[in-house]
Structures are given as structure tokens and as C-alpha cells.
């Protein structure tokens, strides 16, 4: 069956030609299923049960009207017509093809296990750094977040100009205020991986979601069409999602580096803390007990991945680079 516009939200459904929001199957039976939809996080009222559902089916009724019903409601209240309609619909939707795509995705996932494991480890490590850094240097971290959000990687320092420099500037433009020229701002460097400060405070958050999806995928073996379509799409996006995550991780490790700490020491913060930044090392962040945060590096890996990792060595640096090498990815 050739699908037209995919249904993405409530109004896509309401705007369908000959749409009715309510019908009675005893007088207006279901003739055929036209489409399936999944409009989460939004929802639409089901024409059969009257409750809001995220997903369901668009059905054509005798007489030509079109409406929406939850797929369970279809089975429950849809009458005999719905069962026949469903059979016809599923075969038309080429269910085997969808299943094949998901199966293929399983193989793809298998080949990514090592990299997924490495990403997971990296995220846990970065979480330790970020929590420790944030609790020790809250002002600096806030400023870094601002800079990341405003897309300003550069750190400036105020320097007193020499009389000769001021004279040069005055010569170039005599109408300037000499007093205002006393101090100048010079860039002392750009923060590597500066965007990392603006990502979610807990870089493992995205990863957790990702892992949940992975483990859900592994357990999945139904024939729920909406779910299968979601999975097929998720599998198609797997590499891209891994690359995005990889780019974040890469930024994170650039961000937490001694070179950056020297730069951070020039950002507004209490002097004592700025002094500490001058000599801070990654090791300090790794070791430091940040006091109010207790970080337990608990594993979020699905069992399948944990098993596979025992059998395989962890990813090499090059594998990780390959994984994260896509320069087109933005974050
Ligand atoms: Zn319903």
C-alpha cells in the first residue's frame, strides 16, 4: 500500500477528508483500515472508547467517513468488520519486510556492542568529572555554561596598555576617551570542546535513553505494527545516534583537560578557586570526593551487552575515533 503523508499530530488526523470524531459500529461498521498512527507525546480521543490514545488506526467506515480508533479498542469494540480489515491491512503493509528490517537491525546492533560499551564507560567517567567539577567550581561552571550557550569559546583577559599603545590608538582616532583605553581585552585562548558545558548536566542521560531503547529492542518480538515501525526507524538511526553521542563524549574529554583548566582560571570566580584551577588535573577530578554528590558508577548496560563485553576486548582508541569521526555531526 502506498502511503501518503505520515500522520504526525492530532490535527493531521482531524484534517483528514470526511473525518468524524465519533461513530457507532453497529450502524456504521468499519470497512477497512487506512493507516496507523503514533503521535506521541500528543494524543487524540478514540472514536470508540472516548479516551485519549497516543497511537491507533485510521479506519474507513461504511458510507465513506474516516475516523480514528485505538488498535486494542478496534479488537474490543470494532465488531467483526475490524478483524477482516486488520488482516487485509497487515498483509498490505508488508509485515515481513518490516520484520526483516528489524532483524537486520539486530545484526547491526551486534556489531556495535563494543563501541556502545565504550561509550557507556566514557559517559560514566564524564559524569564523575562534571559532578566533581561543578561542585568544586560552581561559579566557573556557570560561566562556562553561559559561554557555551552563547557560542563564545574564547577566554579574554584584561591587560593594562602601555603609554605607547595608548598613544598609537589615540593617533588612529583622536576623538577617543584616553581613560577608556587604559585597559584592553586580549584573547588568551579558546576552550576546547566548549560546547560540552551546555549539554545536559548529566551526559549519561542521553546514553541511558539510548540503552533503554537498545534493551527494549532486544526484548521485542511482537507484531504491534506501530511499535515495529518505530523500531525499524530507530534501527535506521542507530549509527547517527551513536555518532552524536560520540561527538558529545569527544567534546567532554577535550573539555576536561589541563589546558582548559588553565583557561578556566581566568574566568570570574573567587580568587582561591581560580588558583586551584591553575594546577588542577584530571586526576584531581577523578579522585575528588565532591562532598554533596555521591557518584556510584552503576552499570546501565543491558545484560546482552554485558555478556558480549566479557567475551570481547574493549574498544581501542581508533575504534572510538572511527565511531566519532563524522565531522558533519553537530551537537
Ligand atoms: Zn479507545
Task: List its salient traits.
3-stranded antiparallel β-sheet, mainly alpha, two-stranded antiparallel ribbon, 331 residues, binds zinc ion, elongated, single chain, 3 domains, 12% strand
Task: Explain what the structure shows.
The radius of gyration is 29 Å and the shape is elongated. Helix 4 packs across helix 9, helix 5 packs parallel to helix 10 and helix 5 packs across helix 14. Helix content is 53%, strand content 12%. With 331 residues, the chain is mainly alpha-helical. The chain is built from 15 helices and seven strands. The strands form three sheets. The protein has a three-stranded antiparallel beta sheet. A two-stranded antiparallel sheet has the order 2-3. A hairpin with a 6-residue loop joins strand 2 and strand 3. The C terminus is likely disordered. It has three domains: 84 residues, no CATH class; 182 residues; 35 residues, no CATH class. Zinc ion (ZN) binds next to loops.
What structural class is derived from the secondary structure elements? mainly alpha
Average pLDDT:
81
Beta-strand share of residues: 5-15%
User: What is the CA-atom radius of gyration, in angstroms?
Assistant: 29 Å
- What are the bound molecules? zinc ion
Described by the principal axes of the CA atoms, the overall outline is elongated
> Termini, distance in Å?
37 Å
> What percentage of residues falls in helices of 4 or more residues?
40-55%
How many domains make up the coordinates? 3
The major β-sheet equals: 3 strands, antiparallel
Helix/strand order, N-terminal first: HEEEEEHHHHHEHEHHHHHHHH
Largest beta sheet: strand ordering: 1-4-5
Point out poorly predicted stretches: 290-331
Number of distinct helices: 15
Query: How many strands?
Result: 7
Amino acid at each position: 500500500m502506498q502511503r501518503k503523508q505520515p500522520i504526525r499530530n492530532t490535527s493531521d488526523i482531524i484534517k483528514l477528508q470526511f473525518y468524524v470524531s465519533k461513530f457507532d459500529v453497529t450502524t456504521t461498521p468499519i470497512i477497512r483500515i487506512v493507516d496507523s498512527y503514533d503521535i506521541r507525546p500528543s494524543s487524540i480521543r478514540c472514536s470508540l472508547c472516548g479516551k485519549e490514545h497516543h497511537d491507533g488506526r485510521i479506519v474507513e467506515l461504511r458510507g465513506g467517513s474516516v475516523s480514528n480508533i485505538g488498535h486494542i479498542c478496534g479488537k474490543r469494540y470494532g465488531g467483526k468488520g475490524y478483524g477482516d480489515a486488520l488482516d487485509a491491512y497487515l498483509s498490505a503493509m508488508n509485515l515481513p519486510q518490516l520484520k526483516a528490517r528489524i532483524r537486520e537491525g539486530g545484526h547491526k546492533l551486534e556489531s556495535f556492542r563494543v563501541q556502545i560499551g565504550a561509550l557507556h564507560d566514557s559517559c560514566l567517567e564524564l559524569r564523575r568529572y562534571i559532578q566533581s567539577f561543578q561542585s568544586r567550581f560552581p561559579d566557573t561552571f556557570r560561566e562556562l555554561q553561559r559561554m557555551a550557550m552563547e557560542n563564545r569559546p574564547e577566554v579574554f583577559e584584561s591587560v593594562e596598555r602601555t603609554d605607547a599603545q595608548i598613544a598609537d590608538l589615540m593617533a588612529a582616532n583622536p576623538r577617543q576617551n584616553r581613560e577608556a583605553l587604559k585597559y584592553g581585552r586580549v584573547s588568551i585562548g579558546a576552550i576546547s570542546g566548549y560546547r560540552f558545558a551546555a549539554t545536559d548536566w548529566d551526559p549519561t542521560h542521553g546514553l541511558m535513553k539510548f540503552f533503554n531503547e537498545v534493551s527494549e529492542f532486544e526484548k521485542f518480538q511482537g507484531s504491534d505494527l506501530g511499535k515495529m515501525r518505530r523500531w525499524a526507524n530507530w534501527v535506521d538511526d542507530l549509527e547517527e545516534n551513536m555518532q552524536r553521542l560520540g561527538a558529545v563524549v569527544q567534546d567532554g574529554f577535550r573539555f576536561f583537560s589541563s589546558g582548559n583548566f588553565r583557561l578556566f582560571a581566568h574566568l570570574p570566580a573567587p580568587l582561591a578557586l581560580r588558583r586551584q584551577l591553575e594546577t588542577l588535573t584530571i586526576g584531581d577530578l577523578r579522585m575528588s570526593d565532591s562532598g554533596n554528590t555521591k557518584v556510584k558508577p552503576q552499570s546501565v548496560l543491558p545484560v546482552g551487552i554485558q555478556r558480549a563485553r566479557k567475551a570481547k576486548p574493549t574498544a581501542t582508541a581508533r575504534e572510538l575515533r572511527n565511531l566519532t569521526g563524522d565531522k558533519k555531526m553537530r551537537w
